[in-house]
Amino acid sequence: MSRASAKGRHVVQGIDASGGYPVEYRFAHARSGNRHLTVVFANIYAPDDYGWATGVFDGLRSNILWIRDRFDGGNTYYLCREMNFTVERSVIGLISKVMKSLGLTPGDVTLWGSSKGGSAALYFGLRYGFRNIVASVPQLRIGTFVREVYPDTGRHMLGEAMPDDNVRVLDAILPDLLMSGANPDAHIYVVSSPQDEQYKDQVEPFLGLLQRYKNFNFIFSESPFITGHGKVTQRNTPPLLGIAYLLVEGIAPRLGLARHGYEEPDADKSGIEAYLRSTSVVQDSLAAPVVTMPTTQSLLPAAGVRLAGWAPGAVRVSFWETGTYLASAPVGADGGWTWEQEKPWSTGEHVVRLFAVDANGYQSQRTDVQFTVSEHAAVQPGPGAHALHADGPGYAAQGMPSGLQAPAVQMPKAYQQVLGTKVGFTGAARGAAQVGFRENGVFLGACAVAPEGRWSWDPGWLWAEGMHTVEVFAVDAAGRESPAAAVPFTVMNAPAGAAPAGY
User: Fold this and answer.
1) With 80 as the cut, is the pLDDT of residue 184 above it?
2) What single string gives the DSSP state of each residue in 346-371?
3) Helix, strand, coil % in the chain, rounded to nearest 5
4) Which of 41, 53, 196, 263 could form a disulfide with 117 if both were Cys (CB 3.0 to 4.6 A apart)?
5) What topology does CATH give the domain 2-260?
6) H or E element, residue 136
7) Cα(102)–Cα(62) distance, rounded to whole angstroms?
8) What is one process in the GO biological process aspect for this record (predicted)?
9) CA distance linking residue 142 with residue 75, whole number of Å
10) What is the pTM of this model?
11) What is the CATH number that goes with domain 281-403?
């Protein structure tokens, strides 16, 4: 006996050589004291001839016995080698020994398989009286199928010449069991699909016999994702696992005839997408916070670093760094906010990400503020030193003189590389009536400032490729001009013939 590791479950490997053929198996113990055994038969092309052994049953609480279908180097449907049914007797011998060693009865066992394994589950379940049988896309005319579709397996089972008499014997073993009413109380679950090329010959002719069983359940899958035999079980793995989880708990669901699989891959999603946008936590209608202090790339001392700005329409501003929540600051009635961390900042570069939150919990887009903390930096001005407006402590714009302050430019950011040629400007200018724009001493244009201080300007022209530095200045109602904020940016991928802005 050897032990093999399986994803999430410990598996024991063994060989039962007590019968006419050695039978290789894998076994996993039950979890949480479950008193059930699931026996798994392999489909064609199953890895290493073990079916459903890739971790799909890791969460199943029952004991699991996987039986390998490899006898004398070939597949046998667990039945015969050149019509010698010693293979079948060896396989049922293994199942019986495991079942009895666990102190279980056939009523505590589920036989499971798909395709070739589904045929084996049906055969052993009906002939030997096991309570539960789950068979996805089985073949019920086994002889004809292996001769016509898998001749190597056919020769291995039927003999080299695959004579008609042997084909008829294998074709009859499952229909004969059904006609005889073997194991009439079995709970049988069969999965098939009209898109399975084998359905017409291998399943449909026998539905009448199967329906004579009072506990027969048929899942007929008409999913557009099924394109052939191999896709039926793949598409139906979720409902099959649902059945498995119930059976191992002693619950046998009554499904009857269940048709399903009416997906619409190209369904119109515009309605739900519109709803999701309208109720998204992040809303474009709520402006991102404007940071007026500190200015970008500031050099600051470790103690007393103060962030300030405004976020009209919000009730608080949330601060994060490298994915870690730092704090929240309330927003005043005039839209202003300020926050100072209680503990000193570590030396080095910091990028603080912040967003506004309104009374309903909606969030704005994010704003980043970058600064560097150094032991040699000058002390940051106090909250009253550089107010944005003169009638109160306000929210400081670091390094600006008293009076009308230079506008805070939110977009484009300093030294931003702008792809394309349409460049718009947005920002804030508290206390201003207008914001103006100059480049190389040439006046470019102006825009009005909203009552809460926000402004936005679309020049309406294409910008030439290359470096630009636009001076942005505020003008109050009396015509007084603020110092200018220089905004350097680079336009990339401009089309040929685009003229410099303002010319």
Assistant:
1) yes
2) PSEEEEEEEEEE-TTS-B---EEEEE
3) 20, 30, 50
4) 41
5) Rossmann fold (3.40.50)
6) strand 132-136
7) 11
8) carbohydrate metabolic process
9) 13
10) 0.68
11) 2.60.40.1220
